[in-house]
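#struct-help
A.M.: can someone run this one for me? Single chain, 262 residues.
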Amino acid sequence: AGIEFFMAKEEMVKLRLITPKSLSALVIDTLYEYGEIELTRSKQAPAGVPLEAFREISVKLINLRSFEKTLGLIQPPKQQILLPALDLLAQAIAVEQKFEGLKNTLAQLSESRSKKTFLQQKISSLTEFKEITLPSSFFDNSLLEFRFVKLAAAKPDLVQESLSKHNFELALFPQNTALVAFDKKHSAQVLEKLSKLGQVRELPKISAGNFADEIKAAEEELTQVNLRIAALSADESEFRKSHGEKIVFLINQLEAHALKSE
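D.P.: on it. Structure tokens below:
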């Protein structure tokens, strides 16, 4: 009986591989181990330099993808007729010029958002001291130290008793908090005793008259920063609305041209 052979067509897949020249032989040998391959073209180029055939397209794609990421554009690609590359490159240049004008807005927006975070953190950190109405100059004392204490229990008498052997002044505030002033000569002993009564905090440096004034100034500045953020965000949103779809369109079109050049 004769041996029957059956032949079947297998669809080939087109791949573009980019590898260092020193590894090219190894890559080709490895591919041959998986079966039949057909090498249709091989090019050598310096590292990091796009092939001349689509250099301009590559550069424009890099810029447009950067705009897409910066603006947070998330739009599904649409099936459209492929336009001539030269027309697309001209449109990409126009978008680049428009985006150049937006850069200052984005820089101010980033700076304003950082400022907002700083002010929010500042207000939050100062809030617990707002009951201290003494002027900031009062704490510039060469003989006394000051500490803000969050008492573990609502028993101010414990503070009086614990520090009875030292010269000190005590001011009580809501939520079991207190301001303690004491002689710097006894700093180590007093701080050790206070640490057993609750959380001990140093007073932050302020530039306003007192803590309430410092908080108010920060809140007023925060209001102005929020208004600035709103105005800058509106400019960014308008640019995204006017040019976002065009950026995504150009990316899709230029990527198609890049694939055709392979």
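A.M.: thanks! Residues 149 and 200 are 5 Å apart (CA to CA).
D.P.: also worth noting: The helical segments are 24-33, 55-71, 85-126, 156-162, 187-195, 211-260.
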